[in-house]
Specification:
Layout: H1 2-7, H2 24-31, E1 36-40, E2 43-51, H3 55-72, E3 77-81, E4 84-89, H4 99-109
Antiparallel strand pairs: 1-2, 2-4, 3-4
């Protein structure tokens, strides 16, 4: 199932785009089991912490995530620390989760 998300393309997401429904959420989360839904300032987001042996490896991964974001024209929050990268996906325009976020989360996992 993760394969299906990881080969999908993001679609343009506007302020009137539908958020992921309560019924869709568990189905989509099951396809990206290492991601955690987080709510910040009333906005649901997807987050995953990746760990690495050093800063350089974490930095290289963060750069790959940045390249993916540009490719998909969908941009996450990326926190780079020594040996750790925290990636947070959500759709700014709808202030919540869209299918694009799950697609990008699956694609992020494939960057490892």
């Amino acid at each position: 199932m993760t394969e299906q998300l990881s080969i999908a393309k993001c679609e343009a997401c506007h302020a009137d785009a539908p958020k992921v429904s309560d019924q869709e959420l568990p189905e989509l989360l099951a396809q990206i089991p290492d991601w955690v839904p987080e709510v910040r300032d009333g906005i649901m987001m997807l987050e995953r912490v990746y760990t690495f042996k050093n800063y350089k490896l974490a930095w290289e991964f963060a750069n790959k995530v940045s390249a993916l974001a540009e490719e998909e024209f969908h941009h996450p929050a990326i926190l780079l620390e020594w040996g750790k990268v925290v990636v947070t996906w959500w759709s700014h325009s709808i202030k919540g989760l869209h299918r694009n976020d799950f697609i990008c989360a699956a694609k992020t996992d494939k960057l490892l």
